[in-house]
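Please review the protein record below. Tell me whether the encoded fold seems credible here:
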Amino acid sequence: MPGIAAPGAPAARPSGPPSQARFGRFRLEAQLGQGASGPVYLAWDGTQRVALKLLALPGGLDADERQAQQERFLRQAQALSRLDHPDIVAVLDHGEEAGQAWMAMEPAPGFDLTRYVRGPRLLPEPIVLELGARLALALAHAHAQGIVHRDLKPANIRLDLPAGALKLMDFGVARLEDAAITRTGVTLGTPAYMAPEQLTGDVADSRSDTYALGVILYELLTGRLPYAANTLGELLRAVGAGDPPRLRYWRPASSPALEGLLGRLMARDPRSRPSDLAALAAELRALATGSQAVAGSPAVPAARTPPPDA
């Protein structure tokens, strides 16, 4: 990964094998995690290992609702299989087995970015900015295919730091912009990273992903979310009350240009956010080059309550 030279831990090991169970042609070797729409297993299909996601539907759905959810999942899998970008997990196959929808993806080694948003594991600023640039280009590719992620957060981004491998994953609540498959007013995604328009139930578009990218960069740089809240109501009030603490409140050595860029990414008005993600990537890389000229990485001070005008 250009600009990333820090050593990292070995790839995360999957947890608890499900007794070598089988699913169709797949042998399930271990559960890797729980995605937005169902469990994900490390599986062997006879030729290669894949990350196999199964659609888990809530109880209480009638037959028509279950069928609609299955069809939506398979439409998404088909759309995601068109994505061809080195920093987006590839969908290799999809289908339905005994009434259970599934998709097979390339495995993504490493750790998700939640590992790097707290304490001593915060990454140096040039690395964070390079990650941001690569994510911006990956999102630009998805948006060009009419796909909005809608749940962009550190847990859905995997990084193998020694190998320089980055993978954007779990488009579990992704929406096809040209298909009315998500009802207006239904809030999907993880609130802390959601744009104000998503929090109030409006339809998300590509600019909502841009906002989430800004939140992720802010958190990677400071170890804090821009708005501290324990409930959705508190979050709505915090977002409505004003801008978050400025970046340089937590990282005094950061440049005004970087602080201004994060402000544009997290603008409450979607029209004020950057619309050209390729240009955004170039801007982030230029800032990363400037950051590399500064010796060391500024320490993150202990948590404190920002002044009202911070």
Observations:
- The chain has two domains: 22-105, 111-292.
- The chain has eight helices and eleven strands.
- Residues 22-105 form a domain with the Phosphorylase Kinase; domain 1 fold (CATH 3.30.200.20).
- The radius of gyration is 20 Å.
